[in-house]
Design a protein that fits this description.
Number of helices: 3
Oligomer: single chain
Order of helices and strands: HHH
Radius of gyration: 42 Å
Structural class: mainly alpha
Number of domains: 2
Distance between the termini: 101 Å
Length: 127
C-alpha cells in the first residue's frame, strides 16, 4: 500500500509548478516585445544584480568579522595632559651688527643689538 503525500507537500509542488509556468510565460512575452537594445539592457541589469549578491555577502561577512575583532576592552581615560615647555630663543649677541655692513654701514638700517632677558613660563604647574 502506498502512502499518500500530505496536502502541504502537494500544494507546495503546485505553487512551484505555477511559478515556473508564469516565469516562462513572462520571459517569452518580454523577449518577443522588447527591442534588441532594451533586451540587452535588461540582461545586463540582471547579470549585474546576480554578480552583486555574492559580493554583498562577502562584505557583510568581513564587516562582522572586523567587528568581532574590534571588541577590545576599553582603556582607562587619560586624566591629565603631560606638561609642555616651550622655549623661544633670544637673538644672539651681535646678530644685528651684521646687517649694518650689508646696508652700506648705515647704523640706522641695523637692528638694535640688545641683550634680551630670557623669561620662562611653566605651563600646567599646579603650585
Amino acid at each position: 500500500m502506498v502512502e499518500q503525500e500530505s496536502l502541504g507537500k502537494r500544494f507546495k509542488r503546485f505553487l512551484i509548478l505555477v511559478g515556473l509556468i508564469v516565469s516562462l510565460t513572462t520571459g517569452v512575452v518580454i523577449v518577443e516585445r522588447l527591442s534588441n537594445d532594451a533586451l540587452a539592457l535588461l540582461l545586463g541589469l540582471i547579470a549585474g544584480v546576480v554578480v552583486m549578491i555574492p559580493c554583498l555577502f562577502l562584505l557583510a561577512f568581513l564587516w562582522r568579522r572586523q567587528e568581532r575583532h574590534a571588541e577590545v576592552p576599553e582603556r582607562a581615560p587619560v586624566t591629565a595632559a603631560p606638561p609642555v615647555v616651550v622655549v623661544t630663543p633670544s637673538m644672539l649677541p651681535g646678530a644685528g651688527a651684521q646687517y649694518s655692513a650689508a646696508w652700506g654701514g648705515n647704523p640706522a638700517a641695523a637692528w638694535p643689538v640688545m641683550q634680551a632677558e630670557r623669561k620662562f613660563t611653566i605651563v600646567g604647574d599646579e603650585s
